[in-house]
């Protein structure tokens, strides 16, 4: 054990040392109940198995878990930065870096939803960022309730208020009223539209320099139609980004689009055309190779990177981008061997 992280009540996060590096262990202390955790274990195993088949993943599931008489443990590799930390760390993110992270977050959610997995607790603390701005979505909350009461903040504090800052990323429809017309089960299936709302909140925080779009009281007021977040979003100069965020956080969940739809609709409007497929394919090929090979690949790719960034012909980008970075990687592998 090295250090206790955060102030979460439901799961305690502990940074530990392992022979292969640092790991993050999340601990659930059993509270005198005889809960059967086997169903949650099956969900974790399914998520890990499904994500293991994804090529160039932006998702990072729990890698190991263990249950004892007194506690249950979830383990994954430790990352130095999550998005919340990165937003307050120098050098501060440039505009294009923020757009690149927003693109990757949408791509991560697309990978989840394409494989029938919903996250359930997307927030800045669960968005992990490497030193070269490759993004992973982690800490999938298959064991947290889908719905919580709107008039009992203790449930929100216990399950979702990780840092005690009252920031809220939950979709309004996840709050229910006791004795209301619509009865819901706490463990009802998550819906992709719930994740999309949370993504909108995270992207807003990204472009608001770390300021949250909603605190819990504001989210509940927004749910009642008594709060307008568009005024807060006016601090973002780019009207396209504001429009995308407002579309993601609509009160009507059926009006929100899929992650793939946002990637397509806002390509060339908010997200530069060269992000996909060219730049994403290039980064994907850089990811698994050693540092010296990365440098060599960047050197060989540099003329094409400039051409793609300066090119306005989106159709040509798509054709070239699908093949170029793979061809460069093949040339580097030949040199290495």
From TrEMBL:
GO function terms (MF aspect): ATP binding; protein serine/threonine kinase activity
SMART domains cross-referenced by the UniProt entry: S_TKc
UniProt domain Protein kinase: residue ranges: 1-279
GO biological process: late endosome to vacuole transport; macroautophagy; protein targeting to vacuole
Name assigned to this protein: Armadillo-like helical
Database matches in PANTHER family: PHOSPHOINOSITIDE 3-KINASE REGULATORY SUBUNIT 4
Gene Ontology cellular component annotations, sorted alphabetically: late endosome; nucleus-vacuole junction; phosphatidylinositol 3-kinase complex, class III, type I; phosphatidylinositol 3-kinase complex, class III, type II
Coiled-coil ranges per UniProt: none
Lineage summary: Eukaryota, Viridiplantae, Streptophyta, Embryophyta, Tracheophyta
Pfam families the record matches: Pkinase
CDD domains membership: STKc_Vps15 (cd13980)
InterPro entries named in the record: Kinase-like_dom_sf, Prot_kinase_dom, Ser/Thr_kinase_AS, Vps15-like
